[in-house]
Amino acid sequence: MTGTNPDAPATVSFELFPPKTEASEAALVRAVDQLAGAEPDYFSVTYGAGGSTRDRTARVVDMVGARTGRPVAQHLTCVGASRDEIDRLAEGLHDKGISRIVALRGDLPEGQSLAPDGYGDAAELVAGLRRVADFDISVAAYPEVHPEAASAQADLDHLKRKLDAGAARAITQYAFDTDEVLRFVDRARAAGITAPIVPGIMPVTNFAGIKRFSAMCGASVPDWLARMFDGLDDAPETRAMVATSVATEQCRLLLDAGLSEFHFYTLNRPEVSLAVCRALGLTPEITAESAA
């Protein structure tokens, strides 16, 4: 059995990203209020390439915590900052009462490299954060292998380094092929990784956008998924129904395998994530806004 308890109830967390405009900021506030109705374990807020959204990320973290009362995890990356800068930022988060962090190396903007006096990778970052405070740290895992990894085994070895450095759990990159996720978890367990592995779930709100993003991050888009969304570009209601069905089926297969924690990449859109939560037995109130 891949997981440990196939009868465990589902629990969820929601990932958000900092908005770029006032209009999208207002939309995010509405989305947060709606998503809070599913009583997630926590929210997380992403960090732009090279720390480019640092201030906006901090504002969103504060807003989400104040509006929902739920824990909020802030993403931190190695890129574009020295060890001292990251340590001071982590100290500030701890002083504000933020105890959860998603620790990532981060994407390197074109022409930029890691700072020579910075953390060299996510494992070093985790160890550094643990020296600052007793943070609850999540790290990334890649069922289909990180695009820059030398091999699947090297990628798994690096994940183990991150967890051995003090991370509490791994959150996977989304993978639409559920068997890929289950095989990855089995390989991780065989390699001696005992920490929770939380599947990342990507509701398909925009198929063309998902194809572009997947090409950049190394996630495959199966032909069967493309066929399901073919011709739905101008049919948002049908597209949302299909997206809900796909994500719900994946979560149910993972639940059957004993994996009960799910991390939703919401893309700041609550509708499909809330519908999936309801299908999984979580019953958030579906308001007029979230049903629109």
How is the secondary structure organized here?
Blueprint: E1 11-16, H1 22-35, E2 42-45, H2 54-68, E3 72-77, H3 83-95, E4 100-104, H4 122-132, E5 136-141, H5 152-164, E6 169-172, H6 178-190, E7 197-198, E8 200-201, H7 207-217, H8 223-229, H9 236-256, E9 261-265, H10 271-279, H11 288-291
Parallel strand pairs: 1-2, 1-9, 2-3, 3-4, 4-5, 5-6, 6-7, 8-9
Helix pairs in contact: 3-4, 4-5, 9-10
Task: Kindly describe this structure.
This protein is 45% helix and 14% strand. It is α/β, with parallel strands linked by helices. The chain has a single domain, classed as TIM Barrel, CATH 3.20.20.220. A nine-stranded parallel β-sheet has the order 7-6-5-4-3-2-1-9-8, with helices on one face. β1, α1 and β2 form a beta-alpha-beta unit. α3 packs across α4, α4 runs parallel beside α5 and α9 crosses α10. The longest helix is centred in the C-terminal third of the chain and has 21 residues. The model has no long low-confidence stretch (mean pLDDT 91).
How is this structure best summarized?
The chain has 292 residues and is α/β, with parallel strands linked by helices. The protein contains 11 helices and 9 strands. The protein is 45% helix and 14% strand.
Structural class: alpha/beta
CATH class term: Alpha Beta
Gap between N and C termini: 40 Å
| Estimated helix fraction | 40-55%
Features:
single chain; 292 residues; alpha/beta; TIM Barrel; 9-stranded parallel sheet; 45% helix; globular
